[in-house]
Amino acid sequence: MKKFLSTFGFWKVVAVAIITTGLYSAYIRFFHGLGASTNLNDQFPWGIWIGFDVLCGVGLAAGGFTLAAIVYIFNIKRFEPIIRPTILTAFLGYVLVVVGLMFDLGRPLQIWHAIIMWNPRSVMFEVAWCVMLYTTVLALEFSPVILERFKMIKTIKAVKRISIPLIILGVLLSTLHQSSLGSLYLIVPEKMYPLWYSPYMPVFFYTSAIAAGCGMIIFESFLSSRAFKRGLEMNLLTEISRVCVVMLAVYATMKIMDLSDRKMFSLLFVPRFETYMYWCEVIIGVIVPFALLSQKRVRNNPTGLFIGAIFVVAGFVMNRMNIAITGMEGWSGTSYFPSFTEFMITVMIVTIGFIAFYLIAKYFPVFTHEEHHEEKEVAHAAIAWKRDIESVSKMTEMRN
Amino acid sequence: MLKKKAMLIDLTLCVGCNACQVACKEVNKLSGDEEKTLSPTAYTALQEYDGVFVRRMCQHCDDPTCASVCPVGALTKKSEGPVIYEVDKCIGCRYCMQACPFQVPRYEWSSTYPRVHKCIMCHERLAKGLPTACSEACPTGATKFGDRDDLLKEAYERINAEPDKYVHKIYGENEVGGTSILYLSSVPFENIGFHTTLQTTPLPQLTWNALSKIPGVVSVGGVLLAGIWWITNRRQEVQEYERKMHDTNNSSNGKE
After folding, report:
1. Interface predicted TM-score (ipTM) of this complex, two decimals
2. Which pLDDT value is given to residue A372?
3. Do A176 and A240 meet the contact criterion of CB atoms below 8 Å apart?
4. B243 Cβ under 8 Å from any chain A Cβ
């Protein structure tokens, strides 16, 4: 208990320190401009706020639409216990992407212009609309949790009535903008290092986001099981990790096909910075987690599963940062490393995300999702299971 | 409809007097002294490579990458040639800077309410029938303003008249689908800071290839997802019904 208190105190201190520095950085950003607060310049106009806050923020929230599709479209209801925290992670992820954008945009108060000033040829325009709509969809998908707390039964019923079209819309919007974040970079064929630039970037972004989304579901479940001292849904998480392994395999296969199509294999062995970063990303994000999570022994072990998920997420972040920064440095002729202010604002945003998750999960029924209903469901499942076994044994008997 | 205007910049005629930049700063009301690189206060600048002066400025592409990527349409191509910027629309995402294959747009990094700066080809003067300020100021005729078709013809004539002097290429004729600024040079373009590996088709086509698939993804995807739900939901209903029947059968069996 003593130990727990001291750890809790430690994290509180860290959070306060991060937010104080972050707020000071925010002051510099908004009162002295982007030049004073970032290492960006005319040759390198997009940095860590786009690379991490936007590309990774949106990608890591992909668990939301993946799990929503599993539970509501494919009707695999046994995953219901983890749907609420996953939707919450996704919703917070998107809100924080918008917060990050407010720092990055030169004229943040004009962000609403995309609503009325249209340019359908722009990928950014499409991403803006998708993010706007999908954040609304996520808010609606999560709203029953808030409404339940205040016992607004009628409104819950109204939301549930439109839930299937809402989920379908969410999956479509996610498919569009997860891939479109890759399309953003289709416009720079000369600028991006050819190990990363590919006409298939939209597809790579989509598949890797699903893999990373699965990794995040596992990661988030572990953290909340520790924070709230609750059990782990190990059986569900192992299955999620299987989805992750399959997505990693699909991703790796496509990447290999792409490199061979573009005849870029030789680039893998050119001794230069980009090559090393590429190998780091592939080893950490694809090879190691695939080797780990494809083994039953590791998947069924909580620590093994957690470590595997961390590798997936870390590799995903490296991939996005490589595309946004490493891959763009060579052509631009400059090198970029985020300034302390840029870095602290990103860390502050992530910290706020953790705190918001903790508070919402603490005060709203995120983890106690329709316990009663669930029990019934489990009981039904047990009956069905028993019946299946009976019929199978009957069949074998008959055969004999 | 107006004929597409252009400027032909013959680097062999440029003496580096900087009159173009001076005129440009005056017309666009930009402050500051002579500048050697593009900046928020220099829409054009002369860079020297071993006695060769290269005039940098916006290329005014026929199918501008910047205009295609801008989410709010703050950058647009006018039919008579100029690519213009409307500051009131801009949200400051800097995608134009990221995407421009010539690395032209410049940003007010020190401002708290920054805007993009680049050459706008004196579009207000053009509307009045006047030539661009820089071409008017050029004392040697290194920068010549005119209809793009005529200038291309003239550029070929100059190359043919002195084939030993010029590199046999007009930079801007085909780069990213053609631009409104055309260059002639006696030094290979790659040696004087030009990107000569640019593709000859417009870059916006690359993103359009992806964007044009959206209606297909939405309609097919929507039908597919709804269909999957319809099937899995029915399966669930049947299961539930069967279970109920099973339960009632069991209980009735029990009574007997």
Report:
1. 0.89
2. 42
3. no
4. yes
